[in-house]
Design goal:
Keywords: Membrane, Transmembrane, Transmembrane helix. By secondary structure, this protein is mostly helical. The protein is 78% helix and 0% strand. It has one domain (2-247).
Length: 250
């Protein structure tokens, strides 16, 4: 237990004493709220498509807000490899799975706090801009809470990928590729069944189904099932990262 607490204290000290994490979290909040507000404002124009899902409109900032979170998660691991401090960390705490678990715990708490604050602000802004179309009840609250969970899962995905790849640039490219490349490829697929399969399996396409608040029967995957797909990607990346961190040389 003392080893776990020591690892958590060490990772928390690293997180709060370097300027990068604070800036990335601030950028996350600014991008998420700013983009969500802009989309909601544009949606007041009839040409913007007023029949769109109001929940998705309000929370649309997540599409870009996830980028700085992914970068923050990657740097939590790969930054130590680039500075060669990973050797010092693993010498102080030889239990490598504990080190990665401490990084995950210390990362998840501020990410969840910032995501919850930013998305709550998005819903309040949308409530003002779209007062007749965004009641703060059941489906909307599920979409908001689910979006917070989605951003936490993206942080864990980035952490796991960084533990596997180790290089910062390659890890960031891998995570962003996993998120944004499948939706692009899906648009080029002519077979509707294959396209639906890609939408159900891709982490972002499936995970952001949690934001849907209407016409759920026509979604490629249900909201909670989609969030489960994103969770499977994150857990898989963390398990692979834990295995490689434990058994290969630093």
């Amino acid at each position: 237990m003392s080893t776990v607490l020591a690892a958590i204290r060490a990772e928390w000290t690293k997180l709060r004493t370097t300027p990068g994490p604070a800036w990335l979290l601030l950028i996350t909040a600014a991008v998420t709220v700013g983009l969500g507000a802009a989309v909601c404002a544009l949606a007041t124009c009839p040409r913007a498509g007023c029949d769109l899902d109001a929940g998705r409109l309000a929370l649309s900032g997540v599409y870009l807000g996830q980028v700085p979170i992914a970068v923050l998660a990657v740097l939590a691991v790969s930054g130590e490899y680039s500075t060669r401090l990973i050797g010092t960390t693993l010498t102080a705490i030889p239990n490598r799975p504990v080190v990665l678990a401490a990084k995950a715990l210390v990362l998840v708490v501020p990410v969840a706090a910032v995501a919850a604050s930013a998305l709550f602000a998005c819903l309040l802004i949308a409530r003002i801009v779209l007062p007749d179309r965004l009641p703060l009840e059941g489906p909307i609250l599920r979409a908001g809470a689910g979006s917070v969970a989605y951003l936490v899962l993206i942080a864990l995905l980035g952490l796991g990928v960084a533990a596997v790849v180790r290089d910062s640039a390659a890890s960031i490219g891998t995570v962003l590729g996993l998120l944004y490349l499948p939706p692009i490829l899906t648009q080029t697929v002519a077979d509707p069944q294959l396209r639906r399969l890609l939408e159900r399996a891709a982490p972002m396409s499936a995970g952001l189904a949690i934001q849907a608040t209407g016409d759920l029967r026509h979604l490629p995957i249900g909201p909670w099932a989609g969030l489960g797909v994103a969770a499977a990607w994150s857990v898989g990346a963390l398990l692979a990262g834990t295995f490689l961190l434990r058994f290969r040389d630093t």
